[in-house]
Amino acid sequence: MSKAWYLVHCKPRQEARAQENLENQSINGFLPVISIEKVVRGKRQSVTEPLFPGYLFVELATDGTHWSKIRSTRGIRDFVRFGGIPGKVSADLVHELQAVDKEFVTNVDEQTPKTGDKVRITAGPFRDLEGVFQIPDGEKRSIVLLNLMGKLTKLEVMNSDIEKA
Asked: First-to-last CA distance in the chain?
């Protein structure tokens, strides 16, 4: 019995629910995720979200067994179809995504400065000065402490204009 990977369309924000229900039916599914920092209720938090919102990869037998289960699985709408035929996804692509999945999640967190980290300002009038990252100030800015003329000064800087030193 040969198997192939297919792409299914999920109901809004129900990808994890769909994957859990597939696992309960002994069907292999894969949901690639990414860890990003977002401002939630005024606080910056690390959140895990689907890399492809609304979609899930499913491995099924090519002879059509278990296909009827997919449409009745909670959280799933239907297969992604091309000309009425469910489209196959390259197994190599899915394996690459599975291999990169864990690595990608950890790399995002390493580049984001945390309280107390030394940072360098990369643009603007304070370019090339080093300071200490204090706190994020919303989604696009952060507060950095700079030592200017012997006095610690708080400076609001765009997140794109700072990097870890």
From this structure: 55
Predicted pLDDT at 106: 46
Ordered by start, the domain boundaries in the chain are 3-111, 118-164
Give the E-state strand segments of 12-82 in sequence order.
28-30, 33-40, 43-50, 55-61, 76-79, 81-82
Across the range 93-121, mean pLDDT stands at 74
96-121 per-residue burial string, b: 16 or more CB within 10 A, e: under 16: ebeeeeeeebeeeeeebbeeeeebbb
Give the per-residue pLDDT at 100.
78
Domain with residues 3-111, CATH architecture:
2-Layer Sandwich (3.30)
Using the Cα atoms of residue 21, residue 37, residue 112 and residue 128 in order, give the sign of their dihedral.
positive
Record the pTM.
0.61
Give me the residue label for tokens 């597939």. Answer: 22
Cβ atoms of 16 and 29 within 8 Å: the answer is: no
